[in-house]
Amino acid sequence: LSRILRRRERLAHLSSLQDALNLLRKSKNIIVLSGAGISTSCGIPDFRSSTGLYAQLQDEGRYELDDPQQMFDIRYFKEKPEVFYSFAKQIYPSNFVPSPCHRWIKMLEDKGVLLRNYTQNIDTLESLAGVTKVLQCHGSFKTASCLRCKTRVPGQTIEPYIMAQKIPFCGTCRQQRDAELEIKRAQKQAKKKSKGKAKASWDDEDEDETGEEDEWGGGEPGIIKPDITFFGQALDSEFDECLFKDREEVDLLVIIGTSLKVAPVSEVLTHIPHSVPQIYINLTPVHHVQPDICLLGDADSIVTYLSSELGWSVPPPAAVVHP
Ligand code: APR
């Protein structure tokens, strides 16, 4: 109760733009926690707004999903990978240009006051804006992995499949399976030959004949999935490692363009010391958590205003070279 009262007192105190400016002016280790709202001005829909991806999937209704979030559910993906691969090209990072928010985060890094950007986005626009201290909490299309043998490949290798709306199967698995099948075949041939010479009565050997051809059970090689974190998958351990380290150094948390609906990223607010002030910049208010300062409106406009008040110049849009 004392903690809530202390936070209430601070809320009363820190509820103005001026306080936000003062905090930004004096902070040296800022964590920026960002979500889809910082990319909407780039033409990438967010997820939960009325015009977001989930509303679009619901309205379109052509993917036979019980719930739009199933599109990013690992169990559903394993059952029907063709559904995700018929859709993935719509969210595959292409010629998008970083927003003023991305450039603002880059500016914080250039000023030496960005501790880390924890982004939930998979569009890699932070990297494109030149941010190096960025943690892709929900992964990205940069790499992809085989669900069966875990082989990791560069994301570009499955781009043709995504564009052609086809399922990429794992070449490593396929080679390994073919090699193992070849060995089994050769062993069988050898056994047949030796049985032909001496009537062997190794009943137990006969079982090998009826055993499965290979550990694949004759199935297909593994399916390759982009390394974006689906519902039902754990985040990469790097998230916990970074947060464990950063929580000791952070002196300001700025949350931009996220509904804070998805754990564990949404729990960052409770994993950092209560003494660290929190600024929430978003189009819509949030009710399940109480940041110290809420600046409601268009994120690009708000960060541009803050920078101008602080005399900080947000870098202009650089000539973006897509990898
Ligand atoms: N300026 C400020 N806020 C904006 C803007 C904008 N221009 N555009 C949208 N927003 C706000 C919306 O009002 C919304 O509250 O951004 C928020 C985006 O919330 P979500 O759509 O829920 O996206 P996000 O919070 O990033 O989702 C988190 O959910 O589905 C999973 O893995 C997916 O990473 C995603 C995670």
UniProtKB/TrEMBL annotation:
Residues 192-219 are annotated as: Disordered. It is found in: Mitochondrion. Residues 10-313 form the Deacetylase sirtuin-type domain. Zn(2+) binds at residues 146, 149, 170, 173. Residues 203-217 have a biased composition (Acidic residues). GO terms for cellular component: mitochondrion; nucleus. Keywords: Metal-binding, Mitochondrion, NAD, Transferase, Transit peptide, Zinc. Belongs to the sirtuin family. Class I subfamily. This is NAD-dependent histone deacetylase SIR2. The lineage of its organism: Eukaryota, Fungi, Dikarya, Basidiomycota, Agaricomycotina. The chain holds residues 117 to 439 of 599 of the full protein.
